[in-house]
Each structure stands twice: as C-alpha cells, then as structure tokens.
Write a structure and sequence with these properties.
The structure is a homodimer of 336-residue chains. Chain A is α/β, with parallel strands linked by helices and 336 residues long. Chain A has a seven-stranded mixed beta sheet, with helices on both faces. In chain A, strand 5, helix 11 and strand 6 form a beta-alpha-beta unit. In chain A, helix 10 crosses helix 11. Chains A and B meet through helix 9, strand 3, strand 4, helix 10 and helix 11 of A and helix 9, strand 3, strand 4, helix 10 and helix 11 of B.
C-alpha cells in the first residue's frame, strides 16, 4: 500500500492516539480501585473477585449467583453526627410545623423546632420512628419521592456544608462498580427507609430502586378521584436492621449473597447469613478510624456502633477496612 | 485474490451456510412471537414494544424504566381445576400426615387425606392459607426450597398427567423473551407464594428470584446450633393480590411498571396502577376461552374469575387475548 507522507503522518498520529487510549484502558483495567491503598483489605477484595469469576476455577460462581449486599449508613455514605435520614425528618418537621400547631408542645417535635438536636434525639430510635411516620404518612408514594428528591439535591450537612449525596465514600463507589464490572448484582440492604433511598440510589450509587432493601412503613392502594394512588400509612411495616437484614434479603432477593459489606453491629446478622452459605464467601466491615478526614468511632458510639461485629470479624477472618490506612481519599474529589 | 477451484467451492459452501444462517437469524428477528396468530392482540404488543424502544420516538422509554409485571396463575401457567399451589399443599398434607395424627379429624386436612378435593376446598381461601401455613411453617427457607424443587420436578397434574411446569403457556414464554430482548426487565407479581415460585421461575420463565413478587408468610432469623437459619412462621406476612399487587410492586420494584399482564380480577388493581402512570402504558388480559385446548372460564369461575376486569379492559381499550383465536399453541411442544 502506498501512502503520501501526509497519510503516513495521519496514521502515525492515529497510531499514537490509539496507543495512548489503549494505555488508558489498560491502566483502568489494572487499577479498578484507584482510591484503595495496596493493603490487605484491597488484596482480599481482589483475590475474592478473581477467584469467583475465573472460569474453570473450583470457586467459580455463575453470574446469576453473584449477589453482593451493602449497608448504606456508615458503609456507603457517612452517618455522623447522626443518621442523615434524621436530618431529613427534622427538616420535614420544620416544613410541616405550620400545619401542626400541636407539635410546639409535643416531643420530640418541640425540640426539633427549638433547634435542640440533642433533645430531638432523646427519644432514641422510637422517637425518630414516630417523627418519620408523622411527617411521611398520608402522602402518596409519588409525593414522597418528590419531597426526598428536593431534599437530597438541596439540603446541606450541618458541619461539612456538603450536599448529603456528596458525603458518599469514593472507595466504595469504586468497589460497587468493580463488582458490577465483574458480573455482580449490587444491592443496598439498609436500616434506613427504602423509599428514602430509592429516589437517589441509582444516580449516586448506580443501584436501581428494585435493588434497594430497607425499612418501610405500610402503604395502601386506593382510588382518589378515580386515580389510583399508594398512600403511606402511620404504621411500621418492616424494620430492616440486625435480625431483620437476612429476612429482608430473603424477602427481596430470595438468594443468599456471596458477599456482604457493613460497618456496624446492625450488619452482623447479614454478614453471618452471607458467610454461612456453602462455597466462596466474603464479608467486610468498614471501620471508622479516621478522625482527621471523617469520624472515628466504634465500640461506644450511639450511632453506628461496631462492637460485637469487630470481635466476630477477628474471630472469622472477615476483612476489616481501616478508613485511615486503606483509603487514599474518603469523599469524591468534586461535587457530583 | 486467486483461489484454486476447491477453495472456490469451500467459499461457495461457506457462503451458502452463512446465507442460511442469516436467513434463520432474520426469520427469528422478524418473528419473535411464532406461537401468536397475526391478530389484534399480537399487533398491539409489537406496536407498543416498537414505540417505546425506538430512539428519538416521543414515546421512547429508557431501558431502566422498562418494567413489565406478569401475574402467574392463569397468566403464565394454568390454574384449573384449582391453583397448582393448592395441589402442592395437598401433597404436603399427605406427606406430613404421619407426624400430625390430629389432621385425621380436622378440616380441611381430613378431606385432603380422604382424597375429597371438593371438601378440602370448602373452606375457601382461608382454609387453603391455613393448610399452607400448617404444612410450610417451622421449616427453614432452605428446606422449603428443596421441598418445592422436589415437587415441581416430579408431581403430575391430575387430569393432564403433565408436570406442572409443562403447563406453562408457550406464547407467554415467547412474550417474556421478546420483552427481555427489547430491554425490558420482567417480573412476576402473583398472589401465589413467593417462596413457592422462586425455586423454578428462573429455569421455567427465565425470571430470577429477585424479580419474583408474591404472597408470603413471616420468617425469623435465628441461630440453630450456631448456624444462622431463616425459619418460616405460621403467620401471614403479605397478601399479594388485588389491592396488594400495587403495594407489592412498590415494595419490591419501587418503580411503576409500563406494562402489566394478568388474567383475572385479582390483577385489576395492578393494571390500573400500571396504566395510570404518565407516558406510554400497556395492559393485557389473557382470556381463557379455549375449552378444547385448555379451559374456558371468566365471569362465574371460582378460580381465576375475570368479571370486572373484562368490563374495564373494554372501557379502557386494554388488550384482551383470546386463547382460542390468538394462540397457535397453548403448551410447549415437548417436555421441558
């Protein structure tokens, strides 16, 4: 083939471009987890994924069975100084206060309206659930989705000033993608509200609504002016925490995960359930030990306590991620 | 390029083979629904799928939102002379009778043990639920999966002598595949037991466990000899029928379907919920009007009654499939 010199140059440029592109592709292929330091945690993840995806390996798992479940609060996004859904509930109380004059004298609403966060949380989980139900109930599923969407795209965290959806963990986003690139189906299994997570889980985590499992209040189908709606009722339907997590997994997924990721004692039963299956299994705890870049807490924390789970992880050889040592960065570099 | 004559012949043969292959591919592409006659029902399905998948069309729906939900009993497989899960429950009563001497004198168990099907069903849905709970409860989720798997691979229908999994509708299998080939995610949304369908839905329908929605009994996580198990409890958790279907859809899928397929009044609210969404929507009823090849029943049938739904379908222009006229075959040609 004869080419004028211009043609040769073009090909040379094209060739250089292709080489650069291929290098970039190779770099990406060789480093699917760029925010992870090359320590034991990262090595254990990669070793597991390579083992279960290698055709002919005795540990090979067919793609349909590559189910991975992730806790949300403290595992995929932060959870301090309290679960972000509590901030959402507080904001809802403030937004709806004019329709509920009785809240002025009724706890925990009164504390929220006074801006007394500690008082607002004094009722513990029970008080929070009451607040969530009082502020969510009566709305339709579509109205609630809109309220959550408005909140997640505008509300800011009180100490960092970031959008809550910017307080997700960059290394975990990479891990989710790495697993999906290797044929895994990724699920959220969280104590948080299922309808609170779904409106943004797809955009932020790449996890579609049908792969979100969480706590829920009851809903009821009815015709309003001839139009079918689902109305949210002030009654708990399911608590997807602790012993509830394996129950929620069975209800929604119907298949035991082969890998589970958590950060607190609330995830312990999910990790037990996952690792008790036959064949290769993987369990991982994110350990919050980075007071400088995030928060440091474990055995004594009122939110996200990791006590019994830390002991079981050690006894069973589960992977424990040190946020301080294993992660190069915590949050995504720029606003999403 | 120069070729010896043998080479030319090889190429001619190869070329012929390729042409034949391409024709086969084209035939398949041009006829994704070979068991459907070319009537209004088939035309409406194809028109809808082409409309929502054509890029640039005002009716284009992104793949993530192409959710299609299917009833099971009477829509994907037969349901006469009674729901197949009732036969399963009867078989369980017989298998467990020696451990329950009290059943000899207690209805509906006594009727089942006498072989009196009519008496066994006299208690209606309530009696059936009681039977299901009495025979399923106490087992672990894994034990139950094994029991269902054993049954579905061996038990035969009393009048046709076929395996129950052979009594699925060939045209609906093609429809499921056609939708999936066009980027739809297919779900079962059935009044039947979720754990009764999951063990075989993937093999028979190509629908994985996490895309099966159904009725359920409660389960409980516990450690048995240090091993985590999920135990089935004798208490109803959720009834996925009528008004329950949109609730189950929201709980499991979290997104409104754009297409829904049913055959009875139990599916009416699912079809209402689906078609009430904005943008292109599709609703279809399978009408059992083929006494020669299957069964003929609608407004007066105790099982799978289609009365109000038939009127609403007419009023709303939903597609109604005549099994007699629209389907070339009912069941798959040979044992699966």
């Amino acid at each position: 083939m004869h080419l004028p010199s211009g043609g040769r140059l073009s090909i040379a440029i094209l060739s250089f471009g292709l080489t650069a592109l291929l290098s970039a592709v190779e770099a990406k292929a060789s480093d699917p987890l760029p925010s992870w330091n090359d320590g034991a945690a990262r090595k254990s993840i990669v070793a597991f994924v390579e083992k279960v995806t290698r055709p002919g390996s005795p540990d090979f798992v067919p793609p349909a069975e590559r189910i991975a479940t992730f806790d949300n609060d403290g595992c995929l996004w932060a959870e301090q100084p309290m679960y972000f859904q509590a901030f959402f509930a507080f904001d809802r109380v403030k937004a709806l206060a004019s329709q509920h004059p009785e809240w002025k004298d009724k706890e925990p609403f009164a504390s929220v309206l006074r801006g007394d966060m500690k008082g607002a949380l004094a009722g513990g989980e029970h008080g929070l659930v009451e607040m969530v139900m009082a502020t969510h109930a009566g709305t339709t599923s579509e109205e609630f989705e809109q309220v959550v969407t408005d909140w997640i795209t505008t509300a800011k965290h009180p100490t960092t000033g970031k959008l809550y959806s910017e307080m997700v963990y960059q290394p975990m986003l990479e891990l989710l993608q790495y697993l999906r690139d290797n044929g895994f189906k990724t699920f959220i299994v969280s104590g948080g509200g299922i309808e609170f997570m779904r409106p943004w889980a797809e955009r932020v985590y790449g996890i579609p609504p049908e792969q979100v499992v969480g706590s829920s209040i009851q809903t009821k189908f009815e015709l309003r002016d001839g139009k079918p709606v689902l109305v949210r009722l002030p009654a708990v339907n399911f608590v997807d925490d602790k012993e509830g997590k394996p129950v929620g997994i069975q209800m929604h997924i119907g298949r035991r995960p082969i890998a589970a990721f958590g950060n607190s004692d609330g995830d312990l039963q999910m990790l037990q359930w996952t690792t008790a299956g036959s064949g290769p299994r993987f369990a991982l705890y994110v350990h919050h030990d980075d007071a400088a870049r995030e928060w440091a807490y474990d055995r004594e924390s009122p939110v996200g306590r990791l006590d019994k789970g830390l002991d079981e992880a050690k006894a069973n050889g589960w992977t424990v991620v040190s946020m301080r040592n294993d992660w190069k960065t915590i949050f995504p570099p720029s606003a999403r």
